[in-house]
Amino acid sequence: MREKIWCLFFVGVGVGDLIQGGMKTLMASEDVLYQALLDRDGRYEGRAFVCVKTTGIFCRLTCTARKPKRENCLFSDSIGDCLERGFRPCLRCKPMQPMGTPEPVVEVLTRALFQDDERRWREEDIVSMGFDPSTVRRAFKRHYGISFLEMARMTRLKRGVERLTQGGKVIDAQLEAGFDSASGFRTAFAKIMGVSPSQLSSGGTLRADWISTPIGPMIAVSSSSRLQLLEFAERKGLPNELKRLMTIHQTTVGLGRFEPTEQITDELKAYYEGRSFVFKTPLELHGSAFTKSVWEELLKIPPGETRSYAGIANMLGNPLAVRAVARANGANQIAIVVPCHRVIGSDGSLTGYAGGLWRKDWLIGHERKGRMKDEG
User: Fold this and answer.
1) Given a cut of 60, is residue 4 above it in pLDDT?
2) Among 91, 63, 83, 87, which residue's Cα sits nearest to residue 17?
3) Distance CA 13, CA 199 (A)
């Protein structure tokens, strides 16, 4: 088995697409998978493939090619199985690319953005690079959940947050972030933080700061002793989560860092680089007794493995609590560290993730790749 896996790895197969020892993905029925193929359902991305008898190729279920008839389809839960059956990878959907690999236009523009993060990107800049703005917008929405120009504004906003963290004035932060108007800066800031810049000050018993990661910026909030929140910056529920924290602690959130934020920044760097999947930053979890019991089960899931909502309900001794488990999973405020991304549907499908299904897919694949290295 190990020789087979390494063979596939060296020909370019994403490790997250492989069957791990003792971790064979639960497959949905073929009728369900055929409907998913017709719907281009992204929930099965990386966990189910269709082999087309009439063409001899295999595809992702999200492939945009013309759909084959039901009787011409074979379904598999691994790329290795498709190859063993003699099917070739589709040239359109490229199923052998690693999970989470962005489209070329996304990769090019993301690299350009990070190389020139002070630039005030406009549609004319996209056109000058030879890309169609509407195509770019759709590609970034698929991969990141936000447009390229929104990402560029968020990247500029990071510089403004850094200036405020250093004790700078709001007007200085606005200019540092490259916003022409004060109202535009306030609106962009409030969209993420839930309050205007003037309502946040440096210091305070809770402090928020920005952490850059390869799959998007994150906001970390810490007290002097524990990490309170860690979320991707564009998550829609982030402002409400910050308000809830302020209510719980009866204080406002200031800008800056305590030791837990420094520690989680270092641990996230090691995580994304694949050097370590262990987090030791002290956490403070806010939730009901049941919700906390679900989070404790999440913390027991090893990197590179997944569980179903039903499986967690069974572990808690309450098999009827599947929906309650799903709600608790979605209420998690400390992304990646409390690994709600490791919970999938009972049929092996990806299910809702506030950070975006593409991120969930990427994180699971990244962790499986790390597991393979450890076992290799």
Assistant:
1) no
2) 83
3) 49
Based on its alpha-carbon atoms, the radius of gyration of the chain, rounded to whole angstroms, reads 22
At 358, is the secondary structure helix, strand, or coil?
A: helix
- Per-chain mean pLDDT for the chain: 80
Buried b / exposed e along 57-95 (16+ C-beta atoms within 10 A) = bbbbbbbeeebbeeeebebbbbbbbbbeeebebbeebeb
- Options 3.40.50.300, 3.40.10.10, 1.10.10.10, 3.40.50.1360; which CATH number does 2-89 get? 3.40.10.10
Question: What tokens were used for 199?
Answer: 């309502």
For 50, the 3-state DSSP assignment is: strand
pLDDT at 8: 28
Q: Give yes or no on whether 101-200 and 289-375 have one common fold.
A: yes
Which residues are tagged catalytic? Answer: 340
The CATH number of 289-375, from 3.30.830.10, 3.50.50.60, 1.10.10.10, 3.90.180.10, is 1.10.10.10
Cα distances (angstroms) measured from residue 56 to each of 31, 51, 62, 81, 295:
21, 7, 18, 14, 44
Confirm or reject CATH 1.10.10.60 for domain 101-200, answering yes or no: yes
On whether the CB atoms of residues 177 and 185 are closer than 8 A, the answer is yes
Region 106-112: what's the mean pLDDT? 84
